[in-house]
Input
Amino acid sequence: MPLPRALARFNKVATNRITTPFAQVLPGTAVVEHRGRRSGRVFRTPVLLFTVDDRLRIALTYGADTDWLRNVCAAGQAVVHTRGRAVPVTAPVVGDDPQASWAPMPVRWALQAIGATGYLDCRARPADSGPQPGHSGG
Output
């Protein structure tokens, strides 16, 4: 079972505010910028990020039942802030690998230990190919 929902709620209110600036620049981490599907507000969520073939892969440490994941899938796009760059992404696809074989060994063990074997794959897209969360189209 992925991390508990109570921890996710606490992190949303407290921890994410502290970790977001670091997650945008540290290797293996990123911040997903997405627009709320009901509110239209822009949100920023720190995540674990990996590159698998030509896709960006985000570990679903809280499972597939999260607002940020629903927002990204509903919109079909987001912006991933990683290593000081903003990378627009599209074509989100949720998958599951019980072995987490795509993750480096220490991360793989941690993901398996907490039962977080789900992931989100996205494709990077050219920056000028359409509106992005938090930005107007014009």
About this structure: Residues 5-124 form a domain with the Pnp Oxidase; Chain A fold (CATH 2.30.110.10). The chain has a mean pLDDT of 83. The radius of gyration is 14 Å. The chain has three helices and six strands.
